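[Discussion] Sanity-checking designs against the backbone

I'm trying to build intuition for which residues belong where. Below is a structure token string of 241 positions. I'd appreciate it if someone posts a full sequence so I can compare it with mine line by line.
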């Protein structure tokens, strides 16, 4: 009998798009196939939507974008505009019912947990205000529209250029993967990050990747400025090597 198989896997946790690693977009229908495998073996599918949740892909969640319903969905960051820490979990009815009908005594809390800052009123107020602005200004749709402009700008600037390994864009985010410096993994991307910061552009280095994840209110001219600055910084990096 194998040491690990479906019988001893309780849950699978994935980001709809691997944002922290460098904005790696999954293959076509990957998440639908993963959903089918989990259903076949009774495994919970959990989506980490801290980055993709609340509009980054132009819709509510990555689950909506890919048409896949997870058993649990974790969110944070965008729900308060990233200003005040707040996170939450959404679960399907069968998980809720299992917790509520566990057969505990009447006086017991069904799902006992407690954190120092649970239900923090300032964080909750920030979330409500942020969600209202999302709706009033139709920012999810705007993020989807500006994401197309960002993707076009990045591909136009870097496609086929020397030293560029790949360009990955979807929604209002994108990544440029760079050829590494020999024997110094991650050093080139980190140097480009520092150069961009000195030029007034904040990007995120992730391994050999430079990730851009602008706010939903970014303008077309600001996207052009971001890509122009990043282009110059990457060119300086290769010229100095």
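Best answer:
Here's mine. Compare freely.
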């Amino acid at each position: 009998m194998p040491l690990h198989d479906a019988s001893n896997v309780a849950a699978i946790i994935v980001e709809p798009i691997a944002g922290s690693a460098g904005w790696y977009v999954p293959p076509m229908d990957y998440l639908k196939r993963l959903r089918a495998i989990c259903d076949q073996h009774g495994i919970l599918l959990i989506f980490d939507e801290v980055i993709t949740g609340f509009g980054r892909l132009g819709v509510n969640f990555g689950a909506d974008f890919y048409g896949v319903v997870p058993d649990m969905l974790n969110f944070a960051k965008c729900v308060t505009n990233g200003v005040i820490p707040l996170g939450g979990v959404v679960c399907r009815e069968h998980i809720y019912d299992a917790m509520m009908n566990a057969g505990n005594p009447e006086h017991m809390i069904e799902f006992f947990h407690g954190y120092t800052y649970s239900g923090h009123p300032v964080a909750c107020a920030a979330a409500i205000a942020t969600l209202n602005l999302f709706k009033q200004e139709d920012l999810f749709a705007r993020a989807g529209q500006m994401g197309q402009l960002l993707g076009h700008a990045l591909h136009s600037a870097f496609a086929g250029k020397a030293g560029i390994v790949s360009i990955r864009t979807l929604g209002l985010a994108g990544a440029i993967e760079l050829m590494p410096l020999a024997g110094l993994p991650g050093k080139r991307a980190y140097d480009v990050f520092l150069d961009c910061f000195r030029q007034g552009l904040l990007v995120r280095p992730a391994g050999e990747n430079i990730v851009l994840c602008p706010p939903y209110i970014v303008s077309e001219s600001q996207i052009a400025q971001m890509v122009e600055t990043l282009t110059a910084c990457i060119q300086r990096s290769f010229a100095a090597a």
